[in-house]
Amino acid sequence: MKIYLSSDMEGTAGIVDWDQCTAEGRDYARFVSLLTDEINAAIEGAVEGGATEFVVNDSHSAMHNLDPRALSSGARLISGRYKPMYMMEGLDSSFDAIFLVSYHGSMGAERAVLSHTYSSRAIAEVWIDDRIAGEAAINALVASAYGVPIVLVTGDQTTEIETRPFCPDARFAVVKDSISRFAANSLHPSEACALIRREARLAVEGAASARQRDFSTHTTITVRFTTADYADLADRIVGVERVDALHARISGTDPLELYRTFLTVVYLTRGLAS
When you count CB atoms within 10 A of the terminal residue's CB, does the N or C end of the chain come out lower? Predict the structure, then answer.
């Protein structure tokens, strides 16, 4: 069994501040170690469930956070700043299941530590059809395109609430309860890893029957930008329709093309934000 693991960082137990998950922060190295422990807990639980092969996509920030020597079970590592498929780079139909480790809530969530949706400066909220979609839900488009189910998601309670409608048979390891955007009540790291390990094992054991949402029917991604400038810029992209001053829409029946167009919006508007 082959597992694809996409790792973010804001959903790690104990992380509540940008200083802890940006390379310039004084606490960064310590909290990367905690993230690595959670990734390894997911891998080790998957091994207990029967998985034999792992590819980890380092998807946080500049995407070169993880030390490849520290990964368990000979996992391959995808890292580097520019990836055409971003948080889902390297996924294809050869995989049996997907883990999303250390994910977080959407930008508009009431209680979600370090909440954002791909670009905190440019994007205020994203919906898929009529549901708010965080990064995990948006990445489910790629999972659907390749027919590989998302079976494990780790992070805070808001991540579970927002992601469950898009990943009906995924297991969730809630390692912290967000109090605000910069405060949370976290499990002890050892308890967080034990929870992730257990849920990963159960996720792998149930992967063969796991359902996922079908995005091959007509699907619409709606993006609300923080300012009209971003909406104006997005409107210049083929496949993007501006709805009003702050909103733009991407529609279609090909989930992979929807995701790629959304990424183009992210990369272009992020450039303006910088």
Answer: C
Count other C-beta atoms under 10 Å from residue 253's C-beta.
11
Burial level of 13, CB count in 10 A (0-12/13-18/19+)? buried
Report pLDDT for 274.
Answer: 58
Q: What is the mean pLDDT of each run of 10 residues along the chain (274 residues)?
A: 98 97 94 98 98 98 97 97 96 98 95 96 96 98 97 98 96 98 98 98 97 92 97 96 98 97 95 69
Q: Which two tokens stand for residue 64?
A: 């070169």
* pTM (two decimals): 0.97
Which are the contacts of 165, defined by CB distance < 8 A and separation ≥ 6? 131, 137, 213
Q: How far is CA 39 from each of CA 52, 54, 151, 164, 246, rounded to the nearest angstrom?
A: 15, 11, 15, 21, 37
Let me know: does 125 contact 109? Beta carbons within 8 Å.
Answer: no
From 57, 17, 5, 12, select the one nearest 174 (Cα to Cα). Answer: 12
Alpha-carbon gap, residue 115 to 122, rounded angstroms: 13
Please list the residues that pair with 126 across neighbouring strands.
Answer: 223
Per the structure block, which two tokens stand in for 113? 């530590």
Residue 69 tokens, joined: 């020597």
